[in-house]
Specification:
Blueprint lengths: L2 H24 L9 H4 L14 E2 L7 E2 L2 E2 L8 H10 L5 H14 L4 H9 L6 H11 L5 H8 L7 H26 L14 H9 L5 H13 L8 H10 L5 H12 L7 H16 L5 H13 L17 H13 L4 H20 L10 H10 L8 H23 L11 H9 L1
Helix pairs in contact: 3-18, 4-8, 5-6, 6-8, 6-12, 7-8, 8-9, 8-18, 9-10, 10-15, 10-18, 11-12, 11-18, 12-18, 13-16, 13-17, 14-16, 15-17
Length: 424
């Protein structure tokens, strides 16, 4: 048994006992109330899901298993996955064991490439990526074990196997989709000496610069998880609650991530920045940018990348990307514009007085870094997001199976009944 599987087997009994005791002793405790406005407003803010892998306090930003994300920016994604699953950072031996395990599982079946190559050449990269995941469902260990018959308290183990199999293959699939869809040439073989994200950068074939591999490592860490209520995480969770395996569930979640209100933000942010750079033939002056920001707002548009559904501070993930840019591309006019926007736009939004949160989110900076290294294909950016977010989806799935979370089934009512409730 590999070390991650062994560690999960050690900690799961106590986790189950803790949750069962909580429900038994306090199951009738009221923790929230729901308004009609929330029901018709996308259930925003309703405390109705459990997620032990991460949380996002409005005044702090992303916290993974009790550790603020700003303290994890120097870690490898493999370390983050271990942390998400177990609540602990791995030892050196644990990390090496997990990396070796992922390498063994990383070969992508030929039938996946056969399917992708048969798709229309103008297929969206996300459709190709999600199709590849769904095609591999035949590999599911969980489905085979479930069909054979297994106890409910064993569900987590084959789910972890599926998750590791899937995560190991995602960089190769994502890189292959990039090279196929954008006609970049033959697929690039993996380098067995590289880590998970470094290998992804290598197989993309975009840049040989060591810092591009560092960017991929940072990107994968920063986008790995964001509690359980966002569209992709919640969709994956809902589908998995029916005991669909990781291939069905992650594919479903990533279909949600493909939606423009969820995963499209970084390319929209970069598009606005490029428009500014083109208009001013480089990084604008403070006054030019201030006027342009006001013109954008006065025309009824928003400044993409500023504001967040949950946060009320500068997203710590934005800070991490901005620091990376300052270290590696301080003279790039696109990076300079991103940094200048950070200095000017929050003040403009505060003066306007409409924004609940005038501060930048992670998407305000990530796109410009990718663009700097030559990834100019905007449609692919969500695939990068997906490779990273799959870690959060899979870890949440394993943890949910470990404690025996039931099928999700909230109650719905017709509008007529809500009208009656409103009059009571």
């Amino acid at each position: 048994m590999a070390r991650l599987q062994q560690r999960m087997a050690e900690i799961i009994p106590a986790m189950r006992d803790e949750i069962r005791s909580l429900v038994k002793e306090h199951g009738n405790k009221v923790i929230d109330q729901v308004t009609i406005g929330q029901v018709y407003g996308g259930m925003r803010g309703i405390k109705a899901l459990t997620c032990d892998t991460s949380e996002v306090p409005p005044e702090k930003g992303l916290i993974i298993r009790g550790i603020p994300i700003k303290e994890l920016t120097g870690r490898l994604p493999e370390e983050i996955f271990w942390l998400l699953c177990t609540g602990e950072l791995p030892s050196k031996g644990d990390l090496e064991d997990l990396q070796q395990d992922l390498r063994k599982r990383s070969r992508v079946p030929q039938y996946v490439w056969d399917v992708l190559e048969a798709m229309p050449p103008d297929s969206h990269p996300m459709a190709m990526f999600d199709t590849a995941i769904l095609v591999m469902e035949r590999e599911s260990v969980f489905r085979k074990r479930y069909t054979e018959g297994m106890k409910k308290d064993e569900y987590w183990a084959p789910t972890l196997e599926d998750s590791l199999d899937l995560l190991a293959k995602l960089p190769g699939i994502a890189a292959g989709v990039y090279r196929l869809r954008f006609k970049k040439g033959d697929r690039i073989n993996a380098d067995t000496n590289l880590d998970w994200a470094g290998n992804y950068a290598h197989m993309l074939g975009i840049s040989d610069k060591p810092e591009f591999k560092d960017l991929m490592r940072l990107y994968m860490v920063l986008h790995s998880d964001h509690e359980g209520g966002n569209v992709s995480a919640h969709t994956c969770h809902c589908v998995a609650s029916a005991l669909s395996d990781a291939y069905y569930s992650v594919s479903a979640g990533l279909n949600g991530l493909a939606g423009p209100l969820h995963g499209l933000a970084n390319q929209e942010c970069l598009g606005w920045i490029l428009m500014v750079v083109e208009k001013f033939k480089g990084a604008p002056s403070d006054e030019d940018l201030r006027k342009f920001a006001w013109d954008t707002l006065n025309s009824g548009k928003v400044i993409p990348g500023y504001g967040h559904a949950v946060l009320r501070i500068t997203d710590p993930r934005f800070d991490a990307f901005l620091a990376f840019g300052k270290q590696h591309m301080p003279e790039d006019p696109i990076y300079q514009t991103v940094a200048k926007v950070f200095d000017i736009v929050p003040k403009v939004l505060t003066e306007q007085g409409k924004a609940k949160d005038p501060w930048p989110n992670v998407d305000a900076a990530s796109g410009c870094l990718l663009y700097h290294y030559g990834m100019t294909e905007f449609d692919y950016y969500t695939v990068l997001f997906s490779v990273s977010r799959a870690m959060g989806m899979c870890s949440q799935l394993v943890v949910s199976r470990a404690w025996g979370e039931p099928i999700e089934r909230p109650k719905s009512l017709p509008t007529a009944k809500f009208k009656n409730l409103a009059l009571k």
